[in-house]
Amino acid sequence: MKLTLQNPKIFSDIVTIISELVTEVRIKINKEGMSLVAIDPANVAMIYFKIPNTLFSDFEIDKEEEELGVNLSNLKAVLRRCKIGAALTLEKQDNLLKLSIRDRIKRDFSLALIDTDTEEKPLPEWEFNSVIKINSDTLTEVIEDCSVVSDACTFIAEPDKFVVEAHSLNSARAEFSTDEAEIHSGNSTARFSLEYLSKFIKGAKISNQSTLSFSDNHPMRLDFHTGDVVLSFVLAPRVEQDD
């Protein structure tokens, strides 16, 4: 297996984002590209990413599918050594993942591949009652606003309105019409942990548009797309009724 990224920043950003949610993962490589599905230790959130083979300048695999069990903290540390303009090559050799960085000098790293006992689950395909497409920076601001006053927020969607609000002793609220967001919705209300959402919205690094999908008291999905690269999160709802 030999993969080369001429611009590894997007891969580095994705690894950094998901490393805040999971530590050990299995990265899969097949003829279509690189992908990952992982569940956080609390079994509350699911993470998915896909990088297509077209993004790699070299894409060679020796078998139908390769699996790389990696510690994301270690991988993130190496990827941070990639500066702008550097190329990154990944090769699997026995029980090692070889990473080569090429810029002014040639630098080589080796990471021990690990056995992971993570459960294999596909990313769920649900029908959602509400789908909101919104600027990623705007969504980030709203989630950060809610985090100031509470540890959970409520999404409320109607055919022509989307509201994000949080309540405790204090409160925060943001409302969007169809002028500020693309709203495809019936009437939906669901409540989610801001601890997780605050980590999810770091996906704004890879895409300036985000898609938020949810239904009444149902897991939500947050997608960031840039070209054919996909970063997605699924989050179970908070069940208590009072902030």
* Low-confidence runs of at least 5 consecutive residues: none
Q: What's the domain count? A: 2
Cα shape: elongated
Order of helices and strands: EHEEEEEHEEEEHEEEEEHEEE
Can you tell me the CATH architecture of the largest domain?
Answer: Box
Structure description:
By secondary structure, the chain is α+β, with helices and mostly antiparallel strands. It folds into two domains: 2-112, Proliferating Cell Nuclear Antigen, CATH 3.70.10.10; 130-235, DNA Polymerase III, Chain A, domain 2. 16% of the residues lie in helices and 47% in strands. The protein has helices at residues 9-18, 72-79, 136-149, 194-200, and strands at 2-5, 24-30, 33-39, 45-52, 58-60, 65-71, 87-93, 96-102, 106-112, 130-135, 152-158, 161-167, 171-177, 182-185, 188-193, 209-214, 220-226, 229-235. Strands 6-2-3-4-18-17-16-10-14 form a nine-stranded antiparallel β-sheet. A five-stranded antiparallel β-sheet has the order 5-1-7-8-9, with helices on one face. The chain has a four-stranded antiparallel β-sheet with strand order 13-12-11-15. The longest helix has 14 residues, at 136-149. The protein is elongated and about 55 Å long.
